[in-house]
Every structure is written in structure tokens, then in C-alpha cells.
Design goal:
- By secondary structure, this protein is mostly helical.
- It has a single domain (16-84), classed as Alpha-Beta Complex (UDP-galactose 4-epimerase, domain 1), CATH 3.90.25.10.
- The chain has helices at residues 21-32, 56-62, 70-84.
Length: 85
């Protein structure tokens, strides 16, 4: 990334797609071969129900696009963790 191409703004580095906590838990469980114990509790008034980051600004300014899927990123992170421990 070239510094001159970016203003001093905020950039969302994201896929621009929404993923539920349950989908993330399922992916992590499948990758790690560990079953996660899930305890559902009543949502609170201030809980965020949906949060999807928009990456249009960085796509437009420097032609950036995500190259790693969520599942692939979790696999890479998990493998790095295993290799370090």
C-alpha cells in the first residue's frame, strides 16, 4: 500500500459480508476439531444485532480487495498458533 494514495481517514479492511457468531463458531470447531460448548443468553438492550463493515472507500482509493476468505484466515491463524506452541 502506498502511503501517498491514502488520506488520513478510516478504512475498513473487510469482506463487506456479514457472518454470524454461530457461523464463526462452526468454522472454528471444524478447523480445530474441537466442539465448542455454546450457552445462549438473552440479548441485552445495547447488543449490536448486525455489523457489516463497508470497504468501498479503500477499494476505490487503492483498488484493494480481500484475498483471504474467513475460513482460510481462521485456518492460517490456527496453524500459526499450533506451530508456535
Amino acid at each position: 500500500m502506498i502511503e501517498e494514495d491514502l488520506d488520513n481517514g478510516i478504512y475498513n479492511i473487510s469482506s463487506g459480508k456479514g457472518t454470524t457468531i454461530n457461523e464463526i463458531i462452526t468454522k472454528v470447531s471444524n478447523i480445530t476439531k474441537n466442539e465448542c460448548k455454546i450457552e445462549y443468553v438473552k440479548s441485552r438492550e445495547f447488543d449490536v444485532l448486525k455489523n457489516i463493515l463497508c470497504n468501498k472507500k479503500i477499494r476505490k482509493q487503492i483498488k484493494w480487495a480481500p484475498k483471504t476468505s474467513l475460513e482460510s484466515g481462521i485456518k492460517k491463524m490456527y496453524n500459526e498458533y499450533i506451530n508456535l506452541h
